[in-house]
Every structure is written in structure tokens, then in C-alpha cells.
Amino acid sequence: MIQQTLVLIKPDGLKKSLTGNILTRLSETKLEIVAAKIVRVSRQLAEEHYRHMRDKPFFEELIKYIQGELHDRRKVLAMIYWGEDAINKVRVLAGATNPEKADPVSIRGAYGRITTLGVYENVIHTSTNEEEAEREIKLWFNPDEIIVDIYPTKIVTKEKVEIKVWA
Ligand code: IDP
Ligand code: MG
Predict the structure, then answer these.
(1) Which amino acid residue places its CA nearest to atom 25 of ligand 1?
(2) How much is the mean pLDDT over the chain?
(3) What does the pLDDT look like over 85-124, one tens digit per residue?
(4) Which protein residue has the closest C-alpha to ligand 1 atom 4?
(5) pLDDT digit string (tens) for 6-45?
(6) E strands of the chain, at which residues?
(7) Against a cut of 0.85, is the pTM above it?
(8) What is the C-alpha separation between 60 and 95, in angstroms, rounded?
């Protein structure tokens, strides 16, 4: 089945200069990148992205982590990978959530670590299933940032919207 999945290179991945390595590993999947951007993650976006974790004792640390406050890199690289069986293919390459339990040749197994404060720094996020992928992709991207039509869209007329343009 053709699917799409959200991939984030988290701030620890960027700080450790792993972007090239991770993209090379992901290219083994033969999936296509159909959207990509660098994002400065707001608290609101972080909380919404990790809303399923809000009752965890490490939630506050997790929010700081994805916002880059633990690594002095206030950005993530957000991408959408698209193609046959995309969700599972990327999940397998990423490896288990806990970097110590992840297959040592997976991305998380090779590059992740567990900090003394307890949050798993596992360098990459990837959606778990189709429902999560849809929720996450719609949270991180607008339709016109994606070069293929993946979910239904509609045209709305917005009045008095202020946008920044080149001066
Ligand atoms: P996933 O990223 O593999 O989908 P989730 O359960 O959705 O895993 O958790 C989101 C993120 O929260 C993980 O990637 C990891 O950074 C962190 N995390 C999850 N479970 C734990 C835990 O038990 N201890 C510390 N950090 C965790
Ligand atoms: Mg998850």
C-alpha cells in the first residue's frame, strides 16, 4: 500500500551532524521525499505532537528535547517520506524507541542515547501507523508544502490575513 510518513531529525541528530548519515540510511528504502523543511518548534507544536505522552513523568523534558533546548539547536528537519509501505519501512530502519534496546545497526541503535534525566534521545521521529501519520503530517505541513496530493484538500477564502513578504 502507498503510504506517507512524517520523519523528523530531532535536535540531537542535527547537533551530532547526523543528517547526511540518516538521509543515506533512509534512501535504502527507495521511498521518495515529498516535503522537507527546517522548523523552529513552538511549545504549542511540541505539546500537540507529543500529546499522547502528556501524562508521562518525562513529558516536560520531552518538550524541551524536541524544542532543542537540551542541545542548543532550536530546530528540527521535518520531512515526509512517501511510497510503498512507507510507515513500516522507516520504522524498521529507525529501530526501537529505547536506543539501548534498538537493533545496533538501526538509526536509533547506532546514534541514540539515554540521558541521566531519563529522556530517550533517539535522533529521529517517525510515525507509527496511518492514523498517526495523517495527524502528524497535517500538524507539521500545509498542503501546498507537499508535492503530491496525499489527503483531501479544500479551497477557502481568507480575508485580512497578514503575511511576511520580501521588503
Ligand atoms: P516513538 O518515538 O518510537 O514513536 P513514543 O512512545 O511515541 O515513541 O515516544 C515519543 C518519544 O518520547 C520517544 O521517541 C522518546 O524520545 C521519548 N520516550 C518514549 N518513551 C520513553 C521512556 O520510557 N523514557 C524516556 N523517554 C521516552
Ligand atoms: Mg510515537
Answers:
(1) 119
(2) 97
(3) 999 999 999 999 999 999 999 999 999 999 877 799 999 9
(4) 128
(5) 999 999 999 999 999 999 999 999 999 999 999 999 999 9
(6) 2-9, 32-39, 76-84, 113-114, 120-121, 124-126
(7) yes
(8) 24
How far is Cα 129 from Cα 147, in angstroms, rounded to an integer?
21
Ligand 1 center to 117 CA (angstroms):
13
Which cell numbers hold the place of 83? 511510497
Contacts of 73 (CB under 8 A, 6+ apart): 11, 14, 15
Q: Is 128 in the pocket of ligand 1 (CB under 6 A)?
A: yes
**Distance in angstroms (rounded) separating the CA atoms of residues 102 and 50:** 21
Known catalytic residues are 125
Question: What are the chain's domains?
Answer: 2-145 (3.30.70.141)
Q: For ligand 1, atom 8, name the residue with the nearest CA.
A: 97
| Predicted pLDDT of residue 56 | 96
Does the CB atom of residue 122 touch ligand 1 within 6 A?
yes
